[in-house]
Design goal:
Blueprint (H helix, E strand, L loop, with lengths): L1 H19 L1 H12 L11 H18 L2 E5 L6 E6 L8 E7 L19 E5 L3 E5 L7 H18 L5 E7 L9 H12 L3 E4 L11 E6 L1 E10 L5 E2 H4 L6 H10 L22 H9 L4 H6 L14 H6 L3 E9 L9 E2 L2 E10 L5 H15 L5 E10 L2 E2 L5 H14 L4 E5 L4 H10 L3 E4 L14 E3 H18 L2
Parallel strand pairs: 3-6, 3-7, 7-17, 8-16
Antiparallel strand pairs: 1-2, 2-6, 4-5, 5-18, 8-15, 8-17, 9-13, 9-14, 10-12, 11-13
Length: about 475
Protein backbone atom coordinates (compact mmCIF):
# COMPACT_ATOMS: atom_id res chain seq x y z
CA UNK A 1 0.00 0.00 0.00
CA UNK A 2 2.85 2.42 0.77
CA UNK A 3 4.23 1.99 -2.75
CA UNK A 4 0.84 2.90 -4.22
CA UNK A 5 0.55 5.94 -1.96
CA UNK A 6 4.04 7.03 -2.95
CA UNK A 7 3.16 6.62 -6.63
CA UNK A 8 -0.02 8.68 -6.19
CA UNK A 9 2.00 11.44 -4.51
CA UNK A 10 4.29 11.47 -7.55
CA UNK A 11 1.30 11.60 -9.91
CA UNK A 12 -0.14 14.61 -8.07
CA UNK A 13 3.19 16.41 -8.31
CA UNK A 14 3.41 15.63 -12.04
CA UNK A 15 -0.11 16.96 -12.60
CA UNK A 16 0.80 20.18 -10.82
CA UNK A 17 3.90 20.45 -13.03
CA UNK A 18 1.75 20.06 -16.17
CA UNK A 19 -0.62 22.79 -15.00
CA UNK A 20 2.26 25.14 -14.27
CA UNK A 21 3.94 24.50 -17.64
CA UNK A 22 0.80 24.71 -19.78
CA UNK A 23 1.92 27.75 -21.77
CA UNK A 24 5.33 26.23 -22.51
CA UNK A 25 3.59 23.05 -23.66
CA UNK A 26 1.46 25.04 -26.07
CA UNK A 27 4.50 26.90 -27.35
CA UNK A 28 6.27 23.64 -28.09
CA UNK A 29 3.21 22.31 -29.92
CA UNK A 30 3.00 25.51 -31.99
CA UNK A 31 6.65 25.09 -33.03
CA UNK A 32 5.85 21.64 -34.40
CA UNK A 33 2.62 22.78 -36.06
CA UNK A 34 4.51 25.47 -38.00
CA UNK A 35 6.41 22.76 -39.90
CA UNK A 36 4.37 21.87 -43.05
CA UNK A 37 5.02 18.12 -42.94
CA UNK A 38 2.64 17.07 -45.74
CA UNK A 39 3.73 13.54 -46.61
CA UNK A 40 1.59 13.14 -49.75
CA UNK A 41 3.42 15.90 -51.64
CA UNK A 42 7.13 15.40 -52.48
CA UNK A 43 7.56 19.18 -52.40
CA UNK A 44 7.37 18.89 -48.60
CA UNK A 45 9.96 16.14 -48.16
CA UNK A 46 12.37 18.54 -46.44
CA UNK A 47 9.60 19.70 -44.11
CA UNK A 48 8.87 16.10 -43.17
CA UNK A 49 12.54 15.57 -42.34
CA UNK A 50 12.47 18.79 -40.28
CA UNK A 51 9.40 17.60 -38.37
CA UNK A 52 11.05 14.24 -37.65
CA UNK A 53 14.22 15.93 -36.41
CA UNK A 54 12.18 18.30 -34.25
CA UNK A 55 10.37 15.39 -32.59
CA UNK A 56 13.67 13.57 -32.03
CA UNK A 57 15.10 16.62 -30.25
CA UNK A 58 12.08 16.79 -27.97
CA UNK A 59 12.50 13.14 -27.04
CA UNK A 60 16.19 13.68 -26.34
CA UNK A 61 15.37 16.66 -24.10
CA UNK A 62 13.05 14.43 -22.09
CA UNK A 63 15.78 11.82 -21.73
CA UNK A 64 14.99 9.30 -24.46
CA UNK A 65 17.76 7.63 -26.44
CA UNK A 66 16.58 8.60 -29.91
CA UNK A 67 17.32 7.68 -33.54
CA UNK A 68 15.92 9.10 -36.77
CA UNK A 69 15.89 6.15 -39.17
CA UNK A 70 15.99 6.90 -42.92
CA UNK A 71 13.64 4.82 -45.08
CA UNK A 72 12.71 4.66 -48.75
CA UNK A 73 10.08 7.26 -47.82
CA UNK A 74 9.86 9.53 -44.80
CA UNK A 75 12.08 9.06 -41.71
CA UNK A 76 10.98 7.00 -38.72
CA UNK A 77 11.67 8.37 -35.22
CA UNK A 78 12.33 5.86 -32.45
CA UNK A 79 13.12 6.74 -28.84
CA UNK A 80 13.64 4.59 -25.74
CA UNK A 81 13.64 5.26 -22.03
CA UNK A 82 14.62 2.13 -20.13
CA UNK A 83 13.66 1.81 -16.49
CA UNK A 84 16.58 0.67 -14.31
CA UNK A 85 14.44 -2.21 -13.06
CA UNK A 86 14.50 -4.79 -15.89
CA UNK A 87 11.18 -6.23 -14.72
CA UNK A 88 9.38 -2.88 -15.04
CA UNK A 89 6.50 -2.73 -17.48
CA UNK A 90 7.43 -1.69 -21.02
CA UNK A 91 4.97 0.04 -23.39
CA UNK A 92 5.31 1.42 -26.92
CA UNK A 93 3.68 4.71 -27.87
CA UNK A 94 2.89 5.21 -31.57
CA UNK A 95 1.97 8.40 -33.41
CA UNK A 96 2.70 10.22 -36.66
CA UNK A 97 4.22 13.59 -37.47
CA UNK A 98 2.94 13.95 -41.04
CA UNK A 99 -0.25 15.84 -41.89
CA UNK A 100 -2.84 15.99 -44.64
CA UNK A 101 -2.69 18.51 -47.51
CA UNK A 102 -4.46 21.78 -46.76
CA UNK A 103 -6.64 22.21 -49.85
CA UNK A 104 -8.93 24.05 -50.33
CA UNK A 105 -6.65 26.75 -48.99
CA UNK A 106 -9.18 29.56 -49.47
CA UNK A 107 -11.46 28.05 -46.83
CA UNK A 108 -8.91 28.51 -44.05
CA UNK A 109 -9.61 31.55 -41.90
CA UNK A 110 -5.86 31.93 -41.28
CA UNK A 111 -2.85 30.21 -42.92
CA UNK A 112 -2.91 26.51 -41.95
CA UNK A 113 0.67 26.46 -40.65
CA UNK A 114 0.31 29.57 -38.51
CA UNK A 115 -1.17 28.00 -35.36
CA UNK A 116 -3.25 30.20 -33.11
CA UNK A 117 -5.81 30.08 -30.31
CA UNK A 118 -9.34 30.93 -31.42
CA UNK A 119 -12.58 31.20 -29.46
CA UNK A 120 -15.14 28.61 -30.51
CA UNK A 121 -18.77 29.23 -29.49
CA UNK A 122 -19.28 25.61 -28.47
CA UNK A 123 -15.82 24.57 -27.29
CA UNK A 124 -14.19 27.68 -25.87
CA UNK A 125 -10.49 28.20 -26.67
CA UNK A 126 -9.27 25.94 -29.48
CA UNK A 127 -5.94 25.40 -31.23
CA UNK A 128 -6.36 25.92 -34.99
CA UNK A 129 -3.80 24.63 -37.50
CA UNK A 130 -3.23 21.68 -39.79
CA UNK A 131 -2.19 18.85 -37.49
CA UNK A 132 -3.64 20.51 -34.38
CA UNK A 133 -5.51 17.28 -33.68
CA UNK A 134 -4.25 14.77 -36.26
CA UNK A 135 -1.78 13.88 -35.00
CA UNK A 136 0.73 16.41 -33.65
CA UNK A 137 -1.54 17.75 -30.94
CA UNK A 138 -2.46 14.28 -29.76
CA UNK A 139 1.16 13.05 -29.82
CA UNK A 140 2.21 16.06 -27.78
CA UNK A 141 -0.25 15.17 -25.01
CA UNK A 142 1.84 12.05 -24.41
CA UNK A 143 5.24 13.71 -24.84
CA UNK A 144 4.31 16.50 -22.44
CA UNK A 145 3.18 13.94 -19.86
CA UNK A 146 6.55 12.21 -20.15
CA UNK A 147 8.33 15.56 -19.87
CA UNK A 148 6.43 16.44 -16.71
CA UNK A 149 7.31 13.08 -15.13
CA UNK A 150 10.99 13.65 -15.91
CA UNK A 151 10.97 17.28 -14.77
CA UNK A 152 9.22 16.51 -11.50
CA UNK A 153 10.67 13.13 -10.49
CA UNK A 154 13.83 12.81 -12.60
CA UNK A 155 12.64 9.64 -14.30
CA UNK A 156 9.74 7.72 -15.79
CA UNK A 157 8.09 5.01 -13.67
CA UNK A 158 7.95 2.47 -16.53
CA UNK A 159 10.01 1.71 -19.63
CA UNK A 160 8.64 3.60 -22.62
CA UNK A 161 9.49 3.42 -26.31
CA UNK A 162 8.15 6.02 -28.75
CA UNK A 163 7.68 5.33 -32.46
CA UNK A 164 6.68 8.19 -34.79
CA UNK A 165 6.21 7.67 -38.50
CA UNK A 166 5.90 10.19 -41.31
CA UNK A 167 3.68 8.49 -43.89
CA UNK A 168 0.49 7.67 -42.00
CA UNK A 169 -1.50 10.18 -44.04
CA UNK A 170 -0.16 8.86 -47.36
CA UNK A 171 -0.32 5.08 -47.04
CA UNK A 172 2.52 4.11 -44.65
CA UNK A 173 4.42 2.61 -47.57
CA UNK A 174 7.69 2.29 -45.63
CA UNK A 175 6.07 0.82 -42.54
CA UNK A 176 5.93 -2.92 -43.41
CA UNK A 177 9.64 -3.12 -44.23
CA UNK A 178 10.52 -1.05 -41.15
CA UNK A 179 8.54 -3.32 -38.83
CA UNK A 180 10.28 -6.36 -40.29
CA UNK A 181 13.77 -4.87 -39.89
CA UNK A 182 13.25 -3.09 -36.56
CA UNK A 183 10.53 -5.19 -34.94
CA UNK A 184 12.79 -6.42 -32.14
CA UNK A 185 13.61 -2.82 -31.21
CA UNK A 186 9.91 -1.89 -31.02
CA UNK A 187 8.69 -4.97 -29.18
CA UNK A 188 6.89 -4.16 -25.92
CA UNK A 189 4.14 -5.50 -23.69
CA UNK A 190 1.47 -3.21 -25.12
CA UNK A 191 1.04 -0.40 -27.65
CA UNK A 192 -0.53 2.96 -26.82
CA UNK A 193 -1.98 5.07 -29.66
CA UNK A 194 -3.38 8.60 -29.38
CA UNK A 195 -5.12 9.16 -32.73
CA UNK A 196 -8.80 8.66 -31.93
CA UNK A 197 -11.63 10.56 -30.23
CA UNK A 198 -13.40 10.97 -26.92
CA UNK A 199 -17.07 10.04 -26.64
CA UNK A 200 -17.94 13.72 -26.14
CA UNK A 201 -16.36 16.88 -24.72
CA UNK A 202 -16.68 15.71 -21.11
CA UNK A 203 -16.42 11.93 -21.50
CA UNK A 204 -13.15 10.11 -22.30
CA UNK A 205 -13.09 6.93 -24.33
CA UNK A 206 -10.98 3.91 -25.10
CA UNK A 207 -11.53 2.61 -28.62
CA UNK A 208 -11.67 -1.17 -28.39
CA UNK A 209 -12.49 -2.21 -31.94
CA UNK A 210 -11.52 -1.10 -35.42
CA UNK A 211 -13.11 -2.20 -38.63
CA UNK A 212 -10.77 -3.64 -41.21
CA UNK A 213 -10.83 -2.66 -44.85
CA UNK A 214 -10.73 -4.29 -48.27
CA UNK A 215 -10.36 -2.20 -51.42
CA UNK A 216 -10.65 -2.95 -55.13
CA UNK A 217 -11.12 -1.25 -58.49
CA UNK A 218 -12.92 -2.82 -61.44
CA UNK A 219 -13.30 -1.92 -65.10
CA UNK A 220 -16.12 -3.34 -67.18
CA UNK A 221 -15.42 -3.34 -70.92
CA UNK A 222 -17.80 -3.80 -73.83
CA UNK A 223 -17.31 -2.49 -77.37
CA UNK A 224 -13.75 -2.42 -78.72
CA UNK A 225 -14.06 1.39 -79.11
CA UNK A 226 -16.38 4.24 -78.17
CA UNK A 227 -19.50 4.16 -80.34
CA UNK A 228 -21.85 6.79 -81.80
CA UNK A 229 -25.05 6.44 -79.78
CA UNK A 230 -27.20 7.36 -82.78
CA UNK A 231 -25.70 4.65 -84.96
CA UNK A 232 -25.30 1.91 -82.31
CA UNK A 233 -27.73 2.95 -79.55
CA UNK A 234 -30.17 0.15 -78.77
CA UNK A 235 -28.45 -3.04 -79.90
CA UNK A 236 -25.00 -2.12 -78.52
CA UNK A 237 -24.02 -2.93 -74.92
CA UNK A 238 -23.37 0.21 -72.86
CA UNK A 239 -20.71 -0.57 -70.20
CA UNK A 240 -21.98 2.17 -67.87
CA UNK A 241 -25.44 0.65 -67.88
CA UNK A 242 -23.94 -2.82 -67.36
CA UNK A 243 -21.74 -1.63 -64.48
CA UNK A 244 -24.61 0.10 -62.69
CA UNK A 245 -26.70 -3.06 -63.13
CA UNK A 246 -23.95 -5.16 -61.52
CA UNK A 247 -23.32 -2.78 -58.61
CA UNK A 248 -27.03 -2.06 -58.16
CA UNK A 249 -27.46 -5.63 -56.93
CA UNK A 250 -25.05 -5.24 -54.01
CA UNK A 251 -27.86 -4.54 -51.50
CA UNK A 252 -31.36 -5.82 -50.86
CA UNK A 253 -34.26 -3.59 -49.81
CA UNK A 254 -33.18 -3.84 -46.13
CA UNK A 255 -29.58 -2.75 -46.77
CA UNK A 256 -28.12 -6.25 -46.45
CA UNK A 257 -25.11 -6.96 -48.68
CA UNK A 258 -25.81 -9.66 -51.28
CA UNK A 259 -22.31 -11.06 -51.86
CA UNK A 260 -22.52 -14.80 -51.10
CA UNK A 261 -20.74 -15.69 -47.87
CA UNK A 262 -20.09 -12.03 -47.01
CA UNK A 263 -21.31 -12.37 -43.42
CA UNK A 264 -19.75 -15.77 -42.76
CA UNK A 265 -17.69 -15.90 -39.53
CA UNK A 266 -19.12 -12.71 -38.02
CA UNK A 267 -20.08 -12.83 -34.35
CA UNK A 268 -22.91 -10.57 -33.20
CA UNK A 269 -22.35 -8.26 -30.21
CA UNK A 270 -23.30 -9.73 -26.86
CA UNK A 271 -26.47 -8.66 -25.09
CA UNK A 272 -24.26 -6.85 -22.57
CA UNK A 273 -22.53 -4.88 -25.34
CA UNK A 274 -25.85 -3.96 -26.92
CA UNK A 275 -27.12 -2.76 -23.54
CA UNK A 276 -23.97 -0.64 -23.01
CA UNK A 277 -24.34 0.96 -26.43
CA UNK A 278 -28.02 1.68 -25.87
CA UNK A 279 -27.16 3.36 -22.56
CA UNK A 280 -24.95 5.86 -24.43
CA UNK A 281 -28.08 7.49 -25.89
CA UNK A 282 -26.41 8.03 -29.24
CA UNK A 283 -28.25 10.79 -31.10
CA UNK A 284 -28.44 9.57 -34.69
CA UNK A 285 -30.41 12.64 -35.78
CA UNK A 286 -27.61 14.94 -34.57
CA UNK A 287 -24.91 12.65 -36.00
CA UNK A 288 -26.47 12.57 -39.48
CA UNK A 289 -27.77 16.12 -39.28
CA UNK A 290 -24.22 17.52 -39.16
CA UNK A 291 -23.69 15.83 -42.55
CA UNK A 292 -26.94 17.16 -43.99
CA UNK A 293 -28.72 13.79 -43.74
CA UNK A 294 -31.75 12.61 -41.82
CA UNK A 295 -32.29 8.86 -42.18
CA UNK A 296 -30.00 5.86 -41.46
CA UNK A 297 -29.29 3.97 -44.67
CA UNK A 298 -27.63 0.78 -43.38
CA UNK A 299 -29.11 -2.55 -42.36
CA UNK A 300 -32.67 -1.85 -41.31
CA UNK A 301 -32.67 -4.34 -38.42
CA UNK A 302 -29.50 -2.95 -36.79
CA UNK A 303 -29.12 0.12 -34.56
CA UNK A 304 -26.87 2.96 -35.78
CA UNK A 305 -24.08 2.08 -33.31
CA UNK A 306 -24.26 -1.57 -34.36
CA UNK A 307 -23.93 -0.45 -37.97
CA UNK A 308 -20.90 1.70 -37.12
CA UNK A 309 -19.08 -0.58 -34.69
CA UNK A 310 -20.00 -4.20 -35.36
CA UNK A 311 -21.30 -4.55 -38.91
CA UNK A 312 -19.43 -4.60 -42.23
CA UNK A 313 -20.17 -2.29 -45.14
CA UNK A 314 -19.80 -2.10 -48.91
CA UNK A 315 -19.28 1.34 -50.38
CA UNK A 316 -18.96 2.51 -53.98
CA UNK A 317 -16.42 5.31 -53.55
CA UNK A 318 -16.17 6.39 -57.17
CA UNK A 319 -17.68 5.53 -60.56
CA UNK A 320 -16.89 6.89 -63.99
CA UNK A 321 -17.01 6.26 -67.74
CA UNK A 322 -17.77 7.96 -71.03
CA UNK A 323 -17.84 11.72 -71.56
CA UNK A 324 -17.96 13.92 -68.44
CA UNK A 325 -16.96 17.30 -69.88
CA UNK A 326 -19.13 20.36 -70.55
CA UNK A 327 -22.01 19.98 -72.96
CA UNK A 328 -23.16 16.82 -74.70
CA UNK A 329 -21.27 14.08 -76.49
CA UNK A 330 -23.46 11.31 -77.81
CA UNK A 331 -21.17 8.40 -77.12
CA UNK A 332 -21.50 4.84 -75.89
CA UNK A 333 -18.20 4.35 -74.02
CA UNK A 334 -16.05 1.27 -74.45
CA UNK A 335 -15.62 0.85 -70.71
CA UNK A 336 -16.73 2.02 -67.28
CA UNK A 337 -14.95 1.79 -63.92
CA UNK A 338 -15.61 1.95 -60.20
CA UNK A 339 -13.70 1.92 -56.91
CA UNK A 340 -15.09 0.10 -53.89
CA UNK A 341 -14.14 -0.40 -50.27
CA UNK A 342 -15.52 -2.81 -47.72
CA UNK A 343 -15.28 -2.05 -44.01
CA UNK A 344 -14.79 -5.36 -42.25
CA UNK A 345 -15.44 -6.68 -38.74
CA UNK A 346 -13.74 -9.49 -36.78
CA UNK A 347 -14.29 -12.86 -38.46
CA UNK A 348 -13.96 -11.52 -42.00
CA UNK A 349 -10.88 -12.14 -44.14
CA UNK A 350 -10.13 -9.36 -46.68
CA UNK A 351 -8.98 -11.77 -49.37
CA UNK A 352 -12.06 -13.95 -48.99
CA UNK A 353 -14.33 -10.90 -49.15
CA UNK A 354 -12.68 -9.70 -52.37
CA UNK A 355 -12.89 -13.17 -53.91
CA UNK A 356 -16.59 -13.20 -53.06
CA UNK A 357 -17.07 -9.81 -54.69
CA UNK A 358 -15.28 -10.94 -57.86
CA UNK A 359 -17.54 -13.98 -58.05
CA UNK A 360 -20.60 -11.78 -57.47
CA UNK A 361 -19.58 -9.52 -60.37
CA UNK A 362 -18.81 -12.46 -62.67
CA UNK A 363 -22.24 -13.99 -62.10
CA UNK A 364 -24.01 -10.76 -63.10
CA UNK A 365 -21.94 -9.79 -66.15
CA UNK A 366 -24.05 -9.30 -69.30
CA UNK A 367 -23.12 -10.99 -72.56
CA UNK A 368 -20.34 -9.22 -74.48
CA UNK A 369 -18.90 -7.63 -71.35
CA UNK A 370 -15.56 -8.34 -69.69
CA UNK A 371 -14.22 -7.29 -66.29
CA UNK A 372 -10.74 -6.65 -64.96
CA UNK A 373 -9.74 -5.93 -61.38
CA UNK A 374 -6.79 -4.04 -59.88
CA UNK A 375 -5.58 -2.35 -56.68
CA UNK A 376 -7.03 -5.12 -54.52
CA UNK A 377 -5.92 -5.50 -50.91
CA UNK A 378 -6.83 -4.86 -47.32
CA UNK A 379 -6.32 -5.43 -43.61
CA UNK A 380 -8.36 -7.36 -41.07
CA UNK A 381 -10.48 -5.91 -38.27
CA UNK A 382 -9.32 -5.86 -34.66
CA UNK A 383 -10.92 -5.97 -31.24
CA UNK A 384 -9.34 -5.55 -27.81
CA UNK A 385 -9.83 -7.46 -24.57
CA UNK A 386 -11.31 -4.87 -22.22
CA UNK A 387 -10.53 -7.09 -19.22
CA UNK A 388 -6.77 -6.92 -19.81
CA UNK A 389 -5.02 -5.37 -16.76
CA UNK A 390 -3.55 -2.53 -18.85
CA UNK A 391 -6.98 -1.66 -20.25
CA UNK A 392 -8.40 -1.58 -16.74
CA UNK A 393 -5.57 0.63 -15.50
CA UNK A 394 -6.11 3.02 -18.39
CA UNK A 395 -9.83 3.18 -17.65
CA UNK A 396 -9.14 3.87 -13.98
CA UNK A 397 -6.72 6.69 -14.81
CA UNK A 398 -9.17 8.31 -17.25
CA UNK A 399 -11.96 8.08 -14.69
CA UNK A 400 -9.78 9.84 -12.13
CA UNK A 401 -8.99 12.71 -14.50
CA UNK A 402 -12.42 13.28 -16.07
CA UNK A 403 -14.60 12.30 -13.05
CA UNK A 404 -16.66 10.06 -15.30
CA UNK A 405 -16.07 6.49 -16.41
CA UNK A 406 -14.65 6.23 -19.94
CA UNK A 407 -16.71 4.70 -22.72
CA UNK A 408 -15.37 1.53 -24.29
CA UNK A 409 -16.36 2.35 -27.85
CA UNK A 410 -15.94 0.95 -31.32
CA UNK A 411 -14.62 2.79 -34.34
CA UNK A 412 -15.98 2.36 -37.83
CA UNK A 413 -12.69 3.39 -39.40
CA UNK A 414 -9.48 1.41 -39.94
CA UNK A 415 -5.97 2.12 -38.60
CA UNK A 416 -3.72 -0.26 -40.56
CA UNK A 417 -0.70 0.20 -38.29
CA UNK A 418 -2.64 -1.29 -35.37
CA UNK A 419 -3.32 -4.42 -37.40
CA UNK A 420 0.37 -4.49 -38.40
CA UNK A 421 1.48 -4.37 -34.75
CA UNK A 422 -0.74 -7.36 -34.06
CA UNK A 423 0.25 -9.32 -37.17
CA UNK A 424 3.97 -8.59 -37.28
CA UNK A 425 4.85 -8.11 -33.59
CA UNK A 426 1.97 -9.83 -31.76
CA UNK A 427 1.25 -6.69 -29.73
CA UNK A 428 -2.20 -5.52 -28.69
CA UNK A 429 -3.08 -1.83 -28.76
CA UNK A 430 -5.00 0.58 -26.55
CA UNK A 431 -6.43 3.47 -28.54
CA UNK A 432 -6.83 6.48 -26.23
CA UNK A 433 -7.60 9.71 -28.05
CA UNK A 434 -8.73 13.18 -27.04
CA UNK A 435 -10.12 14.47 -30.32
CA UNK A 436 -13.74 15.38 -30.95
CA UNK A 437 -15.96 14.72 -33.94
CA UNK A 438 -16.19 18.44 -34.72
CA UNK A 439 -12.41 18.97 -34.86
CA UNK A 440 -12.44 19.09 -38.67
CA UNK A 441 -9.69 16.52 -39.09
CA UNK A 442 -8.46 16.56 -42.75
CA UNK A 443 -10.59 19.67 -43.35
CA UNK A 444 -9.91 23.42 -43.39
CA UNK A 445 -9.63 25.07 -39.96
CA UNK A 446 -8.74 21.84 -38.17
CA UNK A 447 -8.91 22.40 -34.43
CA UNK A 448 -8.06 20.78 -31.10
CA UNK A 449 -9.75 22.02 -27.94
CA UNK A 450 -7.28 23.51 -25.47
CA UNK A 451 -9.07 21.59 -22.73
CA UNK A 452 -8.63 18.32 -24.66
CA UNK A 453 -4.93 19.07 -25.04
CA UNK A 454 -4.33 19.93 -21.39
CA UNK A 455 -6.54 17.21 -19.93
CA UNK A 456 -5.14 14.77 -22.47
CA UNK A 457 -1.64 15.39 -21.13
CA UNK A 458 -2.91 15.03 -17.55
CA UNK A 459 -4.65 11.80 -18.53
CA UNK A 460 -1.44 10.33 -19.93
CA UNK A 461 0.42 11.39 -16.79
CA UNK A 462 -2.11 9.44 -14.72
CA UNK A 463 -1.97 6.46 -17.10
CA UNK A 464 1.83 6.31 -16.90
CA UNK A 465 1.58 6.35 -13.13
CA UNK A 466 -1.08 3.62 -13.14
CA UNK A 467 1.00 1.38 -15.39
CA UNK A 468 3.74 1.44 -12.76
CA UNK A 469 1.52 0.12 -9.96
Amino acid sequence: MSDINEEQTSVNAVLAQLDEAQQQSLQRLFEWLRIPSISADPAYDDACKEAADWAARQLEEIGFSTTVHPTTGKPMVVGHWRHPNPSARHVLFYGHYDVQPVDPLELWEKPPFEPHIAQNPLNGPVIVARGANDDKGQVMTFLEACRAWRDETGSLPVSISVFLEGEEESGSHSLPAFLKSHGDELKAEYVLVCDTTQWDRKTPAVTTSLRGIAHIELTLSGPKRDLHSGVFGGPALNPIRALTYVLGGLFDENGRIQIPGFYDGITDPTAEQIAQWQALNFDIAEFLGEAGLSQPAGEADRSPLEQLWSRPTAEINGIWGGYTGEGNKTVIPSEASAKLTFRLVPGQDPERVLDGFKAFVAERLPVDSRVTFKNAGGTAALSSDTTHPIMRQIASALHAEWNVAPVFMGCGASIPVVEAFKRELEMDTALVGFGLNDDGVHSPNEKFNVECFTKGARSWARIIGKLAE
